[in-house]
Amino acid sequence: MLLPFLLSVAHAGKLANGWRGHLYGDATWLASPPSEGCTPTPEVGVRWLCPESVGGAKVEVNYMLATEIGGAFTGIVLRCEGYLVCAAVLDTLMAAWGKPFRTEEYGTLPDRTWADGSVLAGWEYNQFSDIGTATTFDKVLYERIKVVEASKAQDAAGEL
User: Fold this and answer.
1) Domain edges within the chain
2) How many CA atoms lie within 13 A of 4 on its CB side?
3) Which has the closest alpha carbon to 121: 133, 109, 104?
4) What distance in Å separates the CA atoms of residue 89 and residue 4, rounded to the nearest whole number?
């Protein structure tokens, strides 16, 4: 159990360095599946849904793309199920991303928020559904998306 944990921590990297060594923004590497067993999704903004492993725990990872800004890789949504699995995932994220700048001290696996450079990440665990979710996104890319969406809304309002 210790070896997969150490390998996954080394593989995860610092938050601002992207997800598993892939920087936010560049999406050329997502032209093909990022790992074995990935399926493309019809959902807007999600390119791949992939079964993966974090800290030896099985998770699902959604690779997010922003079509508004040329299909840039903007972040991931990682989902785990079951308390022990989610606790292992959270331990790995804490080891990889360091101390969060905010922790909500309630529940069995408290919510956490990290920031590193322009990248933000959050962790939530719902003890009733037994599902944990980690989300990362690049706030600079997110701001670019908001500008494009506001421009589209302004154009649409002008047509009324």
Assistant:
1) 2-151
2) 11
3) 133
4) 12
Dist CA 89 CA 59 (whole Å) = 8
Rounded Cα gap, residues 68 and 26, in angstroms: 14
Per-residue pLDDT tens digits for 60-74 = 999 998 888 888 888
Query: Euclidean distance between the first and final Cα of the chain, in Å?
Result: 61
Beta bridge partners of 79: 60, 133
**Token reading at 134:** 């980690």
Neighbour-count burial of 86, counting CB atoms closer than 10 A to its CB (0-12 exposed, 13-18 middle, 19+ buried): buried
CATH of domain 2-151: 3.40.1000
What is the per-residue pLDDT across 127-153, written as a single tens digit (0 to 9) for each? 899 999 999 988 888 888 788 888 888
